[in-house]
């Protein structure tokens, strides 16, 4: 029994150092982020930005088309009103749709 405690006293600091080193190595290994993951995330952010601007441009084009077309006075007035709303507030409309 005495030899076991002597062995434990001598080997405990070394074992603790090894456990600390293994734990630190595992922490560093799992803390690294993948370069492919970062690239994919950057591409996704850029594509969302492009789609948002494309949506804004399409809202403006549709608004202008509604302003110019339609038979009769009522249709022209409602088209003008809807077209102005779409043209002036395209960015908030697209942000609202994205939030849905």
Question: Can you describe this structure?
Answer:
This protein has 100 residues and is mostly helical. It folds into two domains: 1-32; 37-100. Helix content is 90%, strand content 0%. The chain contains four helices and no strands. It has helices spanning 2-31, 35-68, 73-88, 90-99. The protein is rod-shaped, with a radius of gyration of 32 Å. It starts with a helix and ends with a helix. 6% of the residues are buried.
- Note the run of SSEs as H and E: HHHH
Question: How many helix segments?
Answer: 4
Give the low-confidence spans: none
Helix fraction by DSSP (H/I, runs of at least 4)? over 70%
Q: Which structural class do the helices and strands define? A: mainly alpha
**Total count of strands:** 0
Rg over CA atoms, rounded to whole Å, is 32 Å
Q: List the domain count as a whole number.
A: 2
């Amino acid at each position: 029994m005495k030899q076991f405690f002597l062995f434990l006293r001598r080997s405990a600091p070394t074992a603790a150092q090894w456990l600390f080193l293994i734990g630190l190595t595992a922490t560093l290994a799992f803390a690294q982020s993948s370069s492919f993951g970062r690239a994919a995330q950057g591409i996704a952010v850029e594509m969302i930005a492009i789609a948002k601007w494309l949506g804004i441009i399409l809202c403006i084009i549709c608004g202008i088309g509604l302003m110019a077309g339609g038979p009769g006075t009522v249709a022209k007035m409602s088209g003008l009103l809807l077209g102005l709303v779409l043209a002036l507030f395209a960015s908030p409309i697209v942000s609202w749709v994205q939030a849905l």
